[in-house]
Recover the amino acids of this structure.
């Protein structure tokens, strides 16, 4: 039984990677830079997406694919209100997006009218296929109340992404979170990884994040690591 | 392909439920009350377990099964230091415990010497089998920084547990969390569900939680809902 389960997983992962490669080709052909935002529920994905749209919507056209375990679509509405073209994906209980869901969502977006695509993943820190969607950058959003031990506890996830946002730094005086301990863990797993300490609540650090996203789109930088399809 | 995946999942769930029933019988035979603690990473499972052990260790014998995606075992060490008999379970990347892992861990515990068993699950909010381990009470630990919308976003999880701890209420002045909105969502899904607002950091509300756990063990109350095996 364990052997069978592993085989099924490997087949699913291989198929997923092939679809991710097709997604990547479609994004590249349309001149889109795509960010896959991975985080635990409550880390602030939707808030960061809203803030990013509001800051950049006058300088580029932004699309959002919003993964959700239910049919509610509240987060996609928030992204549309902020000024993006948003598509809601109901994963029907699955804890992460897979490449096929992104492919279907891309088919519902006017790709030629989009410069930046933000993919809001569901909220799993573990499944590797959550990083194989075809996006150019996999960005992990951590938050200070989660605790500074998370890179040590989730080495595969922290070792496999291209950038880390550390949200809710306005709570640093009230939570037990040593930024240097956290960054030390990240650095050990993923040398030179970009980190963006910020607060969507107070606004601190957001400009650095906005500048980075804008420069990725302006220069057409689609990831110097290209981990997504290599891993 | 989707059909095949669903069939595999159903077989796995059925087998899991059978093993959970055997676990339950073993716990009942040994006179143990078992709590399955489910939460997102960073919500405070390990802290709540430590505090609970420290408060109750002189009045009952406590065992801990600690699920972790890696072999590190840091949390089991914390539980042992606090005064419990702890077993570490490496889920090898799986995002939740399954009944078979609990069965193997139970075999390594001196069941006759234990009154209260605390099962620390890994950190998935979605997979239903995380609630089918054989434990008597499934307790969800939420935390205020996660946001007050989580019952609305994870209705299956909030609708399927027997109690909810709301941790980190010391952060209420600094986060956007409306306790009544959160409780309203919980009540709509799970009428009359017990909620324990508390702070492992400041200690506020902990005594009510300790009293409840102690009374469950003292009266041998193994859950008035018995959802675990019924769902």
């Amino acid at each position: 039984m364990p052997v069978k389960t592993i085989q099924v997983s490997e087949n699913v992962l291989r198929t997923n990677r092939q679809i991710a490669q097709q997604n990547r080709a479609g994004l590249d052909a349309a001149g889109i830079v795509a960010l896959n935002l991975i985080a635990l529920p409550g880390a602030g994905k939707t808030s960061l997406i809203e803030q990013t749209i509001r800051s950049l919507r006058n300088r580029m056209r932004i699309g959002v694919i919003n993964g959700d375990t239910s049919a509610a679509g509240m987060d996609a509405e928030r992204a549309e209100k902020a000024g993006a073209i948003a598509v809601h994906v109901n994963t029907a209980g699955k804890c992460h997006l897979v490449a096929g869901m992104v492919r279907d969502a891309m088919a519902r977006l006017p790709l030629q009218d989009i410069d930046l695509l933000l993919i809001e993943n569901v909220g799993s820190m573990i499944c590797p296929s959550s990083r194989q969607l075809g996006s150019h950058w996999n960005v992990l959003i951590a938050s200070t109340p989660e605790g500074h031990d998370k890179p040590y506890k989730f080495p595969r996830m922290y070792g496999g992404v291209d950038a880390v946002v550390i949200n809710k730094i306005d709570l640093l005086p009230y939570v037990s979170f040593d930024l240097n301990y956290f960054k030390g863990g990240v650095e050990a797993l993923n040398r030179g990884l970009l980190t963006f300490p910020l607060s969507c609540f107070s606004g601190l650090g957001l400009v650095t994040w906005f500048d980075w996203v804008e420069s990725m789109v302006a220069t057409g930088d689609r990831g110097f690591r290209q981990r997504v399809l290599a891993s």
